[in-house]
Amino acid sequence: MKLPTPRTPDPASAPALRWGLLGAGWIASQLAISLRGTAQTVVAVGSRDLQRAQGFVDEHVPDARAHGSYADLVADPDVDAIHVASPHSEHLEHALLAIRAGKHVLVEKPLAPTADEAAQIVAAAREAGVFCMEAMWTRFLPHVDVLRQVLDAGLLGEVSTVLADHSIPLWPDGPERLASPDLAGGAMLDLGIYPLSFASLCLGGVASAAGVGSLTDRGVDRRVAFVVQGPSGAVASCATDMSVSSPTTASVNGTWARLELETQFYTPTTMRLVGADGVVLDTMEGDPVEKHRGLRHEATEVALRVAAGETESPIMPLDESVRILQVAGELLDSLRPALP
């Protein structure tokens, strides 16, 4: 048994879109870098600080324009699509700003800090008729396309369990946005969203979930271990912690075979198809140089859908993004009553 070939579109041959980056932080820089050599062009960058926007332009996209406000960015007539790269506590405000300006939007993960805010973004985009998608970049990587093909073809047999974890030591000495309850801080929305979204993909959605964990002294989640169940009854066991480093691996386990994803499973990594007897049947090697250059695949998806006149992606459906945040919210809510 062999792994299928990725069907991932070539970013160099995708239709051209003119991008505006809302935010001048690290993730915006990674997208800008990843788009080099593709048909996509960053034509404008917006920040609340014009000097910060200009510094970003000078370093990453010298031909782009710098805007000293987000309102000026979304009003730029040369911008087709906005990458909302601000902290997720601000996604609702910034996504709505872009949507109301008639721009297509790619909103960084998570789509919003709550399911209610995510639903507001979705409703606004649908009413405006613009494209909208959560930037869950893992969904668009070649190895995950292969995973999806394996699941669709039933090559693993009956999927019974999924395992995934993601922990990075970002607290207490990391960014304030992760420590602050006012900024929707905590491990789940920044790190745990990856294994939760992965579980949803592999299980065909989430029917129910339960978890345990603990909060920091400021009331945000430090660690969460959770189990989710899909519509078929299969389950996923996941964990996230913003105070330690974990293997950050994943596996999808069926009655005939399993898929093993090596460390940083949500990035371009090595994936193995392993038989029920433990014999490795096939391997898809990861590209260590690729890493966040893989962000160009999500931009390619936006460009292809917009060119086709579509307003959503079947690979990362908006309703699924909302459902994932509903589950995340339920898990987080369950932690608080148990603690003083």
From TrEMBL:
Residues 17-134 form the Gfo/Idh/MocA-like oxidoreductase N-terminal domain. Keywords: NAD, Oxidoreductase. Residues 147-258 form the GFO/IDH/MocA-like oxidoreductase domain. One of its GO terms (molecular function) is nucleotide binding. The keyword Ribonucleoprotein does not apply. Belongs to the Gfo/Idh/MocA family. This is Uncharacterized protein.
